[in-house]
Structure formats: C-alpha cells, structure tokens
Amino acid sequence: MNETAIETRNLTKRFGDFVAVDRVSFTVRAGEVVGYLGPNGSGKTTTIRMLLGLLQPSDGEGRVLGYDIRRQAESVRPLVGYMSQKFALYEDLTVRENLDFYAGVYGVPPRERRDRVKEVQQLIGLNGRDDERAGELSGGWRQRLALGCALAHRPQLLFLDEPTSGVDPSARRAFWDLIYDLASRGTTVFVTTHYMDEAEHCGRVGIMFRGQLLAMDTPGGLKATALPGAAWDVIASPLLEALAALHQVPGVVQASLAGDRLRAITANGHTPESISSALAGLGFAGAIVERVEATLEDVFIALAGHRSG
After folding, report:
1. Interval 279-293: pLDDT, tens
2. Correct CATH for 228-293 of 1.10.10.10, 3.30.70.100, 2.60.40.1120, 3.40.50.80
3. Is this model's pTM higher than 0.85 or not?
C-alpha cells in the first residue's frame, strides 16, 4: 500500500455559478481514520464523489492510492469501498444474499465468495443472521450490513459518507468500534459526519464549511490552535438575558447556548472569579462559572463564525 492514501491540491467543483468544493487541499496517510466534519451541504459528499471518479473536478488535482482521479479512476475503484448516505441494500434479499451479491459486483471470484461472506459476517457481527431479510433489520444492523457490503472485496481504503445518520447512539458507538477494528487491520478510513461528538473519535479531522476546508488537524490540535483561550460553562438566569450580558464581558470572544447553560470562549487571562464578577456588574450576581474542556463544536463555531463574518 502507498504511504499516502489520498492527496488533493486545490480540488474544486463548480455547478454553474455555485462552488460546491472550493480549492480543497489535504493529505491522508495510509492507516489513518480521518473525519470530514461539516453541516449538510458543506461539500463533503461532493469531495468523496470526486475522489472516487464519480464526478470530474472543475479544477485542481487529486490522487487516491497513487492513482490520478481524473485519468485513472477505473484503477481506483477496485481498491476502495464506498458506503454512501443511502446505501442500496436489497431489502427482499437476506443478509447473506446481499453480501454475496456485492462480493460479486466487486469482482470477488465465485470460489472465494462463500468464505469471504462468512469472514465479513464475523467482522461486522452479523453471524447467525444469514437468512434475515435486509428490510427487516433495525437501522443499526442495516448500517452494519451496508458496511459489510462495502468491505466485501477487502478494500485498502474505505469511504464512509454519513454512515451513522439516523441510527441511535448505542448503534453509533458500536459502529465506531467496527471502524477502529478495521483501522487496526490496516484499512484507511475516510468518514464524513455532521455529528461533532462523533468526530472526536477520529485521528484527524477536517472541518468543512460552505465548500471550504477551514482546518485539518487532530481534535486536540484543532482545539489548541483554533480557539483563542479557555472554554467555560456558565449557569445564570434568565438564560437569554444572561447570554446577552456574557457577550458584553471584555475578553469573551464567543458565547452561545448549551442546553440549560451557557458556553463561553474567552481570551487567556480570565478566571471563574473574573467572569462571575463581570456578570455581577451586569446584573447577574450568583452566576456559576466552571472551566471545561473545549469541544469540536466550539472549534467549528469559532472557525465558521470567523469565515461568516
């Protein structure tokens, strides 16, 4: 396997006057789990479709497993697995039949197919469900089956496009366990998501917004470089009035609602006492301020807010 699994340089896709992906450049090393984080419509799926050769870039360059995505897309496809947002399982076919069908589509020789199907069932935890129809599976098990179909030919690189959308939290956690099991076996994983907490599981995260890649780094690296200082939880009421007051506190560079409390990002130098004192001076005596670990949601708000401004 190449040491570099994916490399893009100024990759761009335009649809008429609309720029869906705007000069995106990044590198994914073999064996990494890389998250591509952003809201719906930010260009994540369009990026994947260009990397797979399903869309021609308008500008820029890209290589996948050493192959040029413009000229050598046919060489890329047998080496990668792709699980789209709406993976086409055949609901009237059983688990085993779906896996056998996709193994054939991906070119697994008939003499190897039976053993490979069993191997995939073991890997994704679908042993004992051979004869269950895909249409009768719950959302989490359907996602496992879709992943298994994408793995039928032992791909070196796996593209997962919003793989846990619409499944419950426990199924999402189980799915991420599967992703890291695959990574431990040497598979490179490139996964898109709009779940901020889910992106924390990735080795590195790229943050997309309005077609632009705002940053790419480890979750810890993003928090260290994208935020100007510390993160705080603030308990004060009435909540909306307290939020307006928090915006007036000198040194507060970002403030937002976070459930039944407020989240603030401040420049360095603030303490719980300094923030409480400032809020008391604005009519919110007794506010409780606690330093907390920053999240990727804080990072996204900081980066996207700056770009929007």
Report:
1. 999 999 999 999 999
2. 3.30.70.100
3. yes
